[in-house]
Amino acid sequence: MAEIIVTTEGSQHEPVVRVHTWVYDLSGNDEPTALRVKVLPGCSPVRQALITRGEFPEQSMRAWEDMPLERVRIGEESHPPALEGQADVDAMTRERTLGHLADALQQASGAPVEQHATAFGHIMVVKLEEPHHLAFAIDRKWPMSVLEVHRLDRRAGTAEPISTRDGLVVPDVAGIVEVFRAAKMAKGV
After folding, report:
1. Residue 189 pLDDT more than 60?
2. CB-CB contact of 152 with 134 (8 Å)
3. pLDDT, tens digit, for every residue of 65-89?
4. Residue 13 burial by Cβ neighbours in a 10 Å radius (0-12, 13-18, 19+)
5. What confidence tens digit (pLDDT) does each residue in 3-57 have?
6. How big is the chain by its Cα radius of gyration, in Å?
7. pTM value?
8. Which end of the chain, C or N, has fewer beta carbons within 10 A?
9. With bands split at pLDDT 50, 70 and 90, how would you rate the model's confidence at 112?
């Protein structure tokens, strides 16, 4: 069993946030053991997915961004924790996230979604109306940014870039589906 207790110290306007972490060995030892904590940059994949889906709005999922690392302490440490290297997610999380996106695009388009692995990441191709398709180039690195979007005319063999908002990432399934719907309506498809 693991336990995390968060306390605040100092002023109410700029408190120091202290994080205490323990693990209990349930095989007989009654005393908890302090856990080592790694602080990784960015937002966790789970939190990012909840934010983009609008889940649990009462939880203020973005509130952590307002707390500077300089005001955080781990256990009894007197200094802020060191930031570890860039966080990465496991292959299963990537695959599931891409799967959620493919399912949503298939539902929006009514047709199967093509998926192609590339050196930089993935390409997803979604049917608009023959011969037109929409291709999303997706970065391999988490949070898997949408690098480019192109409207393909497979009969003519052409590709036209489509403008999207900056910062579009695969966990933002609703945002990517909206890009698809806008492209479909833009040409009257």
Report:
1. no
2. yes
3. 788 889 999 999 999 998 887 666 7
4. exposed
5. 999 999 988 888 999 999 998 887 777 788 888 888 877 777 778 777 777 778 8
6. 22
7. 0.63
8. N
9. very high
3-state secondary structure the chain: CEEEEEEEECCCCCCEEEEEEEECCCCCCCCCEECCCCECCCCCHHHHHHHHHCCCHHHCCCHHHHCCHHHEEECCCCCCCCECCCCCCCHHHHHHHHHHHHHHHHHHHCCCCEEEECCCEEEEEEEEECCEEEEEEEECCCCCEEEEEEEEECCCCEEEECCCCCCCECCCHHHHHHHHHHHHHHCCC
The whole-angstrom separation of Cα 182 and Cα 176 is 10
Domain boundaries, the chain: 2-74, 91-186
Higher pLDDT pick, 163 / 48:
163
**Amino acid identity of 17?**
V
Compute the distance between CA of residue 115 and CA of residue 20 in angstroms, rounded to an integer.
Answer: 44
Q: In this predicted structure, what is the pLDDT of residue 188?
A: 52
Structure token digits, residue 163: 């403008």
Residue 82 and residue 36 in contact, taking contact as beta carbons nearer than 8 Å: no
